[in-house]
Amino acid sequence: MKKQVIEKSAQALFLLCAGIAALAVCSITVYMILKGMPALTEAGIRNLLFGTVWKPTAEVPSYGIFYIMLASVAATGLAVLIGVPIGLLTAVFLSEFAGGKLGVCLGSAVELLAAIPSVIYGLIGMMVLNPLMYRLEKLIYAGKTDHQFTGGANLLSAAIVLAVMILPTVISVSTSSLKAVTDHLRSASLALGATKLQTIFQVVLPAARSGILTGIVLGIGRALGEAMAVNMVAGGSVNLPLPFHSVRTLTTQIVSEMGYASGLHRRVLFTVGLVLYLFILAVNLILFRMRKGGEKR
Amino acid sequence: MRKTKRVQEAFLYGLIGLCAAFSAAMLLGIIGYVLVKGIGAVDLEFLTTVTSVLRGTAGIAGNIVNTLLIILLTMIIAAPVGIGAAVYLNEYAKPGKLAAAIEFATEILSGIPSIIFGLFGMMFFGQTLGLGYSLLSGSLTLILMVLPLIIRNTQEALKTVPDSYRTGAAGLGAGKWHTIRTILLPSAMPGIITGVILAVGRIVGESAALLFTAGSGKALPKGLQDLFPKIFRSGGTMTVQLYLSATSEGDFDTAFGIAVVLLVLVLLINLGTKLLAGRFDRNRERR
Fold first, then answer.
1. From its phi and psi, is residue B207 left (phi > 0), alpha (psi between -120 and 50) or beta?
2. What is B45-286's CATH number, 3.30.2350.10, 3.50.30.50, 1.10.3720.10, 1.10.275.10?
3. Which of B147, B247, B269 is the best substitution to test chain A (most A C-beta atoms within 10 A)?
4. Residues A244-257: pLDDT tens digits?
5. Which residues of B touch A128 (CB under 8 A)?
6. Residue B244 CB: number of other CB atoms within 10 A?
7. pLDDT 10s digits, B257-272
8. To probe the interface with A, which of B197, B243, B276 has the most A CB atoms within 10 Å?
9. For residue A178, what is the domain's CATH number?
């Protein structure tokens, strides 16, 4: 009898623990919606989501976050454009060429890259990348008067820092999916007279497609959600996201203004959070679908 | 093979090697740069005093204590809850809607960026529960953030425990709880500890979730009896202080000094999980 009570209560306790994770997701979702919705009606959905002027402290405040959303998308897109090819080729190197010690060393290096805190990426971006960008900017816009110089803190800097930050994710997920491709495919292709590179690019990579895509989507999620590093290198004025413009993304908008915002301004920042949350949820749902699809096959 | 093709192949080989070298060079570059810029700032005074204009000291002792307190507070709750959740998912849950829903929730939770956790923590723990900017509020936020990490690692570890252990224990008349406590958890321990260490690493590197929950206080607790009251006060971790030093305070010596300390910590944590994982694999082979 006593044993049964213990068993039952243990089970209940474990269920409670598991429930906390589910409860956390539900309450975060509910809270984000509850706090993010009021400003939508107060400031007007169209003005807020499609307005391009962000002047929260002006006499007649304007809360347009369209450029901010666009900057998030642009920074993430550019980061993927830069980071994915590098990551993918590194994964090819790790799975097809690097054997023994070299592979282990490079693998550990990639793992360590993932463990470095984002503020350190931001710090190095500020100190190394931004000055380089400023030089490039001076070179490109020399003599032009209509360009507002950013001192190197711009969209391109943010995208490069993000590209390095998503490298480990792309590399590790792609490497494991390349390694999972059966050797029969490789030997069959080689037996047919294809060179090693032809085999890799026309047989192995397509076979590992779903895993590679998963890695890319994970990278997109990480880039969209990164706040501190981007905030340190992206400048920080609300602008049309062009490579040499100083920009604000959804995440940096929250980081840089939440500290002092009040009233409607604060509530709009919650809406920015909600928009970011919806972006991330969409990415996660795609990921979940892809994983489910991968399991079925 | 035609000549253009051979040139093409050579080019591709070069590109693959270059990309791999880039990833490695990135890591070495980051570590080297931070060490060169920051090692000069790190000495005993830096690690044991608090920055004060009055006393003319520059140090991060307060931030180190805050980081340790937050790790402790977070893990005290997150570790048991995460391990419990994994035990439920792996040992009790029958395949069905409930288990699928919880797995789905864990997956979503692990994809949420830290700034969203920070916003939620600020609103819920800070305002609704009235904890304001405090170490406790930051820790509660981080619990939610590291849960998926601990759950997933514990689940993986439990999956490697062979089923014969379970049936064997059941055959000897052991109850489920007894089996879990005395057989499953001890066998899965290296994997569980790996998860816990990874979670600690995540906390050490976290900044966005803490900026608006734990705040940025840098005072040291006044003696041991002040440790408990301290958790209701604001406290910035090393990462938060690094961020503030590099941006609003413009104090790059401190920023790089903290970066060195953080890098060393991250390296140690990485090494720890490596060693444990090695032991775990050996255990698995022996079976």
1. alpha
2. 1.10.3720.10
3. B247
4. 888 999 999 999 88
5. 33
6. 21
7. 999 999 999 999 998 8
8. B243
9. 1.10.3720.10
